[in-house]
């Protein structure tokens, strides 16, 4: 279970994604805890903030769907009806990742730059030019953007998941 986490999603999330930035809307700037998203909130953020956040949510949903469709027939349905909501098993975290190992969880740090900002570089083992594993089990992967984490790279990332 996560403690002192700041972000959006399920407190018991198996999938924990750590990101350097927050949606540029007032209600997310002052967020100090982890809270589940409400149905329709992802669409509202994308509509109000533009393509950047739409890509982040889309790539997150595509990764989850490719790893396990969870009964959904399309990744878009998983995104709209499950992602970052209560009991979804997913979280998007705006706080640095804890360095202690967390059994059974998938913990992703988005981007080399954020990994460096979090002080992870000294304990990273680079698997290739895009993916690294920290001694705590954290995985550093490309930022959730179609160019950086393409469908082929999503499949590569799935192969690295615990």
Summarize the structure in short:
The protein is 33% helix and 17% strand. It has an eight-stranded mixed beta sheet. It has helices spanning 26-29, 41-49, 51-67, 75-81, 112-117, 151-160, and strands spanning 7-9, 15-18, 34-35, 90-93, 106-110, 124-126, 132-134, 139-141.
* Share of β-strand residues: 15-25%
Main β-sheet, in a few words?
8 strands, mixed
Largest sheet: spatial strand order:
3-1-4-2-5-8-7-6
Query: Count of helical segments?
Result: 6
Order of helices and strands: EEHEHHHEEHEEEH
Overall SS class: alpha/beta
Shape: globular
**What's the end-to-end separation, in Å?**
17 Å
The rounded Rg comes to 15 Å
How helix-rich are the residues, as a percent range? 25-40%
Count the E strands: 8
How confident overall, as mean pLDDT?
95
Stretches where pLDDT is under 50 for at least 5 consecutive residues are: none
Instruction: Tell me the number of structural domains.
Output: 1
Account of the protein in words:
The chain has 162 residues and is α/β, with parallel strands linked by helices. It has one domain. Helix content is 33%, strand content 17%. It has an 8-stranded mixed β-sheet. Strand 6 (124-126) and strand 7 form a beta hairpin. Helix 3 (51-67) packs across helix 4 (75-81). The chain is globular. The model has no long low-confidence stretch (mean pLDDT 95).
């Amino acid at each position: 279970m996560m403690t002192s986490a700041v972000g959006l999603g399920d407190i018991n999330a198996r999938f924990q994604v750590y990101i350097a930035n927050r949606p540029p809307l007032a209600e997310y700037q002052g967020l100090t805890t982890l809270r589940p998203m409400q149905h329709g909130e992802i669409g509202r953020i994308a509509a109000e903030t533009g393509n950047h956040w739409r890509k982040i949510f889309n790539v997150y949903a595509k990764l989850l769907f490719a790893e396990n469709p969870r009964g959904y027939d399309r990744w878009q349905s998983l995104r709209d009806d499950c992602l970052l909501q209560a009991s979804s098993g997913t979280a998007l975290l705006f706080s640095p990742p804890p360095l202690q190992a967390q059994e059974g969880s998938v913990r992703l740090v988005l981007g080399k730059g954020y990994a460096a900002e979090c002080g992870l570089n000294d304990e990273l083992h680079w698997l290739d030019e895009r993916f690294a594993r920290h001694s705590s089990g954290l995985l550093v992967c490309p930022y959730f953007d179609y160019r950086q984490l393409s469908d082929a790279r999503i499949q590569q990332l799935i192969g690295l998941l615990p």
